């Protein structure tokens, strides 16, 4: 356990909720841009001449990746709709908690989208085995960067 003092703020609960929601919106802006570009790219693939040459496995990867991208877009835009509907209803605490869950779920679907897109392209360009190996490596990297490192720090800082 670390002996370093924890960073604290002197703020009211309302100020904390406002700050947390602002930080969540910044996270959403980053995730939304990437997933929307990837989704747009995926929507164009079936209209390419070589799409008819995909194997059944490749089409399965494509469909999984496309649906995962669509779910990611819906999840990452849901907090905006939620805020719009609940604006000035005194439910900021609910909005912040729900947005937190949406962001976590959205990162999972985004990881599936990224990995699926890479596996699809590599399965077309190189070998099936190499595509699966790289996809597994990317999944491991996402788990390390997005889950293991943050959780290890959280565990170290929790009294």
Automatic annotation (TrEMBL):
* Signal sequence extent: none
What keywords are annotated for this sequence in UniProt? Membrane, Transmembrane, Transmembrane helix
Its transmembrane ranges are 28-48, 60-82, 102-125, 131-149
Output the superkingdom of the source species: Bacteria
One of this protein's Pfam families, by short name?
Answer: DUF6328
Which InterPro entries does UniProt cross-reference here? DUF6328
What's the protein here called?
Sodium:proton antiporter
